[in-house]
Amino acid sequence: MAKRIDIKDVNIYYGKFHAVDSVTLSVPPRSVTAFIGPSGCGKSTVLRSLNRMHEVTPGARVEGRVLLDGEDIYAPSVDPVEVRRTIGMVFQRPNPFPTMSIRDNVVAGLKLAGVRNRKKLDEVCERSLRGANLWEEVKDRLDRPGGGLSGGQQQRLCIARAIAVQPDVLLMDEPCSALDPISTLAIEDLITELKQDFTIVIVTHNMQQAARVSDQTAFFNLAGVGQPGRLVEVDDTEKIFSNPSQKATEDYISGRFG
Amino acid sequence: MTTAMMDLERPATGPTFQGVSAGRKAKNVLATTLVTLAFLLAVVPLVWVLWSVVEKGLEPILRADWWSHSLSGLRPYEDMGGAYHAIYGTVVQGLTTALLSVPIGVMVGVYLVEYGTGTRLARITTFMVDILTGVPSIVAGLFIYALWITIFGFSRSALAVSLALLLLMVPVVVRTTEEMLRIVPNELREASYALGIPKWKTIVKVVLPTALSGIVTGIMLGLARVMGETAPALVVGAYAPYINFNVFDGNMANLPLLMNDQFANPETAGFNRTWGAAMTLVLIIMLFNLLATVISRWSAIKK
């Protein structure tokens, strides 16, 4: 199940613009790694390069290697669709499929991959919704549209949808930034539970959140305007928030940044 | 006593909020009047047209023969028979056109939005579709006449009419599909990709269903427009007063052609048939619009 990720000397470009400069970083399995840093420093871009979502944007490309348990996901023979099936993603804004019911949203990944067995789909639906702590709230209205849920419920629905395909890694791009504190707490608890089964990478602007949920924290920063973003340092979360080795990190987490 | 109190309570500066000035009131009345007049001006002809059609066309279409008989073998002054042949023609030609142009139009729209963004081919296609949108219907008719009948040597037929109508309908479908696909949020596509769903399946199962209600409305509007076209039918098809079920060969009537033919008939029968056909055409198009509303309601995104 959970696999480790090794990012080796990754450079990311949008057309001619060099967005991220030479990131090297390891994410151990069954752990939560948080990416923090100011806006535009490339943390989301790095995250999106981990499941080859980056290249969906026209003109975008990635150089370097991203290894999933030693296997390069950018090798020429690798199908990006397979990569994304193995490395799931949850987005900043909850994005359930508006034409589908709650049940169909959860099993969308399996159903569109051709799984027809109704019993199996129902099983996966219940397991995933339980996994996302949403089952009790929606079990009586699985046939209702997913768009009718509250923002926090929609985000947990999206997490259920992502874990339904049983990925090895779960990427989360600011999953709580559109949610109220109660829903945020629910998602953070969920992340701590999901850590048992998945390798999780989460981008967040909320440093308390990074401190609460993550085992390892990576701080990204910009060298200057128009310069590519880069990884300043990565270490145990406790160390980053108590005694970082770089001055820039300390300035950022203590609010003296910029 | 009370007045003195009120005077004391009044603040030294003037009130923050003042009454509406006379100038603004006058402008408001003027603008309201103009807008209302414009609305009435637009509604009057519409109601008038509908009223004329209903007044003159209702009686003929209430006869039982109207829906079940053609005008085959009838003299111009014999006020009997019906429009069955033309109703059949209008519906069949419309549906043939839709059957051919919907797949082409939707696929071109999908290409433009999902695959061709920014490419040279997409730019050329958009340009061509824009030009095609402005092509007068008689030009489409002449083009199909030259291509289908003169060069390829086929005979005039309902199919040829449908091909000419296709040229008019495809741009409408392309445009609508394109616009509807563009407003589907990119986040939905990414959500689908992130589940390991291939691009084509994302388009078929996520993007198109999300845009479906808008696309259906566009198709129905295109169909309504095409069914009322007379010019291409005059050029590549031809009126026949009898029933012709064969789409591929022979003259086949449709409602505009029937009107065009009977308009020249000075008898009362001609008058009745012309207006009856007009009424029928309005009814059919209304029916299709109603159908479009039902389908787009049914396929709309539910909350």
UniProtKB/TrEMBL annotation, chain A:
Biological processes, Gene Ontology terms: phosphate ion transmembrane transport
Keyword Translocase: yes
Protein biosynthesis is among the record's keywords: no
Location, primary (coarse class): membrane
One Pfam assignment: ABC_tran
Compartments in which it is found: Cell inner membrane
SUPFAM superfamilies: P-loop containing nucleoside triphosphate hydrolases (SSF52540)
Superkingdom, natural source: Bacteria
Membrane topology listed for this record: Peripheral membrane protein
Function recorded in the entry: Part of the ABC transporter complex PstSACB involved in phosphate import. Responsible for energy coupling to the transport system.
Protein name (Swiss-Prot/TrEMBL): Phosphate import ATP-binding protein PstB
Organism: Longimycelium tulufanense
UniProtKB/TrEMBL annotation, chain B:
Transmembrane segments: 29-51, 86-113, 125-148, 154-174, 206-227, 275-295
Biological process, per Gene Ontology: phosphate ion transmembrane transport
Localization per Swiss-Prot or TrEMBL: Cell membrane
GO molecular function: phosphate transmembrane transporter activity
Xref: Gene3D superfamilies: MetI-like
Membrane-related topology note: Multi-pass membrane protein
Segment forming the signal sequence: none
Domain ABC transmembrane type-1 intervals: 87-296
GO cellular component: plasma membrane
Primary subcellular site in the record, as a coarse category: membrane
Pfam families, per database record: BPD_transp_1 (PF00528)
UniProt entry keywords in alphabetical sequence: Cell membrane, Membrane, Phosphate transport, Transmembrane, Transmembrane helix, Transport
InterPro entries: MetI-like, MetI-like_sf, Phosphate_PstA, Phosphate_transprt_permease
Family: Belongs to the binding-protein-dependent transport system permease family. CysTW subfamily.
NCBIfam families: 3a0107s02c (TIGR00974)
Function of the molecule: Part of the binding-protein-dependent transport system for phosphate; probably responsible for the translocation of the substrate across the membrane.
Protein's name in the database: Phosphate transport system permease protein PstA
This protein's encoding gene: pstA
